[in-house]
Amino acid sequence: MTDLRPDTRVVHLPKVQPEGSAPISTPIYQTSGFLFDDPAVFADGMDRPDGAFVYGRYSNPTTRVFEEAVAGLEGGVAAVAAATGMGAINTIFLALLSPGDHVVAQHSLYGGTGHMLEELEARFGISVTYVAEDDPEAARAAFRPETRFLYLETIANPMTQVADLPGMCAAAREAGVPVIVDNTFASPIVCRPIEHGASIVVHSSTKYLSGHADIVGGISVFADHELHRKVWKFHCGLGAAPDPFASWLSLRGLQTLPLRMARHNENARIMAARFAEHPAVAAVHWPGLPTHKSHALATKLLPDFGGVFSIDLAGGREAGVRFMKSLKVALLAPSLGGVETLVLHPASTSHRSVSDAALAAAGINPGTVRIAVGIEHPEDLWADFAQALDPAR
To answer: Are residues 323 and 225 in the same domain?
Structure first.
């Protein structure tokens, strides 16, 4: 095409394909679409998740690598990445539910998830029955012919109750009900719910998977191809696909996930034990402590207990606010799973849309403070927490 004029040349730039070598890092395919020589291949790519790359809303090579990597870590057959964690969750909800359907879910849920279930109830006639996360008999009693799935969290947000995944999945399997598990707080380093019978595992990849507080994203992993294809088709129409750069950052973070999780878990172990001994603290909610209601189950099910815990301060909400405002190393901010230690007040932030009755049912008090431990040196962290707890400061 040497006879093209400048106006055309600057539009149709050269394409470079590496020959005899390959990039070490996965490239960022920052393109909205892909070129074809064959119309049949073009059409086929729009119809299946493992076809040719066609359009960014359907698939992208950078995102595909992230999906395959997380699916491999979770022991699934395929995954669908989304622009946010709630994007991943809502894609599944809307792909699987129709008016008149029924859902069984655990009482203690992330506030955004609980809010969306309430919205589905109010606006679309979806009925929801809530059960304890560790009560398979209650789940069996709740299932109906119109139940479309059981929804659980491996480690609940923010009170860290642990779901009885083997028991709850067995009960659902007997009823022919798929199980969706939010594994964000555990990560696939601490738990792989598909191994216990889950059908879909969902993550807010904003958190531990990417691990650096620089992107928002979500991903769902599937135990079978049929369910994956059903959700993927809806995902394409919904338009919840992530940007390729966010997928690339998630991939970069994923490579250090085991190293980071080891430090998060160890720091949480040290901090939770010290908070439990402090006279200003009424209770510490972390499944690694023998006092936690899920400790026996967590010890059987998990190799470690995660980097998030909650504390109830003896002085209630006032003491919680004073504590958070006094911190200098730990930061008052939303989210979790990054390298920094973050604290928040669940009742007024992450669970602000949850009713008072639902907060009480989940064990969230007005003075509850959630602490997502980062990877700082534990002695620096404890010095900061100790000075914030000191009534004489």
So the answer is: no
Average pLDDT for the chain: 94
pLDDT digits (tens, 9 = 90+) for 306-358: 999 999 999 888 898 899 999 999 999 999 999 999 999 887 776 666 666 77
Same domain, 238 and 121: yes
**pLDDT on residue 393:** 55
Q: Which two tokens stand for residue 107?
A: 């009482």
> Which pLDDT tens digit goes with each residue over 23-61?
999 999 999 999 999 999 999 999 999 999 999 999 999
Say if residue 124 is in the same domain as residue 232: yes
What is residue 351's predicted lDDT score, i.e. its pLDDT?
A: 67
Residues 51 and 166 in one domain: yes
Q: Are residues 52 and 169 in the same domain?
A: yes
pLDDT value at residue 206: 98
Which CATH number does the domain housing residue 106 bear? 3.40.640.10
Q: Which residues are catalytic?
A: 57, 110, 182, 207
* Calculated CA dihedral for residues 16, 22, 24, 26, nearest 10 degrees: 60
Pick from 196, 231, 254: which residue ends a domain? Answer: 254
Q: How far is Cα 198 from Cα 229, in angstroms, rounded to an integer? A: 17
Residue 277: inside a domain: yes
Query: Which of 256, 244, 119 shows the shortest CA–CA distance to 187?
Result: 256
Give the total number of structural domains in the chain: 2
CATH of the domain at 340: 3.90.1150.10
Domain housing 378: 257-389
Question: Starting at the edge strand that comes first in sequence, how are the strands of the sheet with 308-313 ordered?
Answer: 281-285, 308-313, 368-372, 342-344, 331-332
Q: Side chain identity at 320, as an amino acid letter?
A: G
CA–CA distances in Å: residue 92 to residues 3, 226, 367, 389: 51, 13, 34, 42
Task: State pTM to two decimals.
Answer: 0.94
User: 124-164 pLDDT, tens per residue?
Assistant: 999 999 999 999 999 999 999 999 999 999 999 999 999 99
What are the start-end ranges of the H helices in 239-311?
244-254, 257-277, 295-301
